[in-house]
Structures are given as C-alpha cells and as structure tokens.
TrEMBL record:
Keywords: Hydrolase, Metal-binding. This is Phosphotriesterase. One of its GO terms (molecular function) is zinc ion binding. Binds 2 divalent metal cations per subunit.
Length: 303
C-alpha cells in the first residue's frame, strides 16, 4: 500500500504537498476564547491567498471536532486559493466544550474519529486527515487519557497520524508514555505540538528519541520563549541527529493574529521564521522541514 496525505480534496502523494504550514487554524470557535473566533470565510480566503503569495502550498488545520472547523467551506477554499488543506478530527481539552457534548460522546469517541477519517465529517464528504488530541499542564488528566485512548484505537483502525497539543509545551514525555508505551502507537505516527513553548533541550531530545515528530509552531508572544529560542533548539536537535523529525507551523488561533487583520498570521512562517532558521540549520534542511517532513508526518497507509 502506498502512503497518502488525506486532503479535503482527496488523497495525494506526500511529495505533492509542497511548502507546508504543519500546524494552523483557518477556523476555530471555543468558549475559552469568546469574541476572538476564527469564523470568517472571506478572511480565511484572504489569509490563504497571502500564504500562497509568500510561497506556501499547504496548511494542516488542527481544529478538531466541535470547535467550528467549517469543513463544508474547506474544499472551495482549497480550490479557489490553490492551497492544499488537511482537516482534523479529534477532541481538545475538556475546558473547550460543554459538558453535554462530551457526555454525548461517551462510549463512541473512537467510532466518531474513525467515521470522520474514513466516511467524512457529517454530511460534507470531507474526510479528516489526522487526529488531534491534547495533554494538560505537566500532566494527563482523565479527559486526556480518554481522548488519547480513543485516538490510538482510531489510529489502529485507519493508520491516521495523531497530533498532540502540549499545554504550554509541557508533558511531552507523559504523552509518549501513554500513546507509544501503554497504547502501542508507533512513535513516527505521533506529532507533538508547541515544543517551543517549553524549551527544555533534554525533554526535546528524549521525545525525539521515540521517533515522534517535533512541531515548533506559533510566533512569539510576550510570555512564550518561541522565535528567539527556536534556532538554538532546532540546531541542537539537528546536531543530536534528530534534524529529520522537525516540523514548523504558524498556529493562528484568534482573529487578531491573522495577517489580514494586522497580526503575523500564516505568512509569518515563510516571511520571517524561515530565514531565521536557515541561519541556524542551512537552507537545505529548512526546505526539507517545510516540504518533505510534513509529507512524511501526515501521510498514512489508509485502511
């Protein structure tokens, strides 16, 4: 069986993905972010067009079940902008959801994930291409264990990769102990997000040793050590032999962060971050991080 990346317009060969923002959001609605929703189709189209103009070719949207993915709009956005889009299933932290919605998923969460990966999201026909779950701050609560157990079951049924939100970049080793240890998910099927937010080189090397993917995503905020520490971190990982496990993303989560609304947005990844990392890693490796690596990380032998 040949591995394929599952986009909203169908499965493609990994090499067809092109320059990829490996972690971002076109749409996102959460009760944790009132009044800051990403819910504007024209703004999403403009953001994709700006990313395309900067040299981008693909975006992986990590917005999971129940948080306003707008899967119905994704195929047309992909067609009109020429940017390939990958959509997620999965479930975020419990705080993002109403209790009633979570209760309705008890006993059938893995089934929902599998259905969205193989049959499509609702009646849209859009199939998800990854499973997104989330850890907690330096720990895994019962909700995280429930969602990750369901994600592992869905992975075994479909081959889909599992992408993990690390809360403030923490808990990477606990996540790997659960997913790869207890639940038996191969390390190269796990993508850890937000590692740049907790720049511990020892943890990053230990995580990389599992074979997982290390995603450095999101431009600097005042309380995160992101851009200015990222070159040092990725260079250390490359020097330790883990340069082939790196991914880069923008992680735009609120409307004000879009480039079309005055923020850094998706183009920032290529406009600023890329050149800075080239000084640390060299242009050849950064090019592979943006093109070859996402194709490998998000491809699957779809069952």
């Amino acid at each position: 069986m040949v591995s394929r990346v599952r986009t909203v317009l169908g499965d493609i060969r990994p090499a067809e993905l092109g320059v990829c923002d490996a972690h971002d959001h076109l749409f996102l609605r959460s009760r944790q972010l009132p009044g800051q929703e990403l819910d504007d189709v024209p703004a999403a189209r403009a953001e994709l067009a700006a990313f395309r103009a900067a040299g981008g070719a693909a975006v992986v949207q990590w917005t999971p079940y129940g948080l306003g993915r707008r899967a119905t709009d994704l195929p047309e956005l992909s067609r009109t902008t020429g940017v390939r889009l990958v959509c997620a299933t999965g479930l975020h932290q419990a705080a993002h959801y109403e209790t009633e919605l979570l209760g309705s998923l008890r006993g059938r969460l893995a089934e929902v994930f599998v259905s969205e990966l193989t049959e499509g999201i609702g009646t849209t026909g859009v199939r998800a291409g990854l499973i997104k779950v989330a850890g907690g701050f330096h720990a895994l609560d019962g909700h995280a264990r429930w969602t990750m157990t369901a994600a592992a079951e869905a992975h075994r049924a479909t081959g889909a990769p599992i992408a993990v939100h690390l809360e403030l970049g923490t808990g990477a080793l606990d996540v790997l102990d659960l997913l790869c240890g207890e639940l038996g998910v191969p390390g190269d099927r796990v993508i850890l997000g937000h590692l740049n937010r907790f720049p511990d080189p020892v943890v990053q090397r230990q995580a990389a040793a599992s074979g997982c993917w290390l995603a450095f995503d999101g431009p600097s905020r005042a309380h995160f050590a992101t851009d200015w520490r990222m070159p040092e971190a990725v260079r250390a990982l490359a020097d330790a032999g883990f340069g082939d496990r790196l991914l880069l993303g923008g992680d735009t989560v609120v409307a004000g962060a879009r480039s079309v609304d005055g923020g850094p947005g998706m183009p920032y990844l290529l406009r600023r971050v890329r050149s800075r990392l080239e000084e640390a890693l060299g242009a050849e490796l950064v090019d592979r991080v943006l093109t070859e690596h996402p194709g490998r990380a998000f491809a699957a032998d779809w069952a």
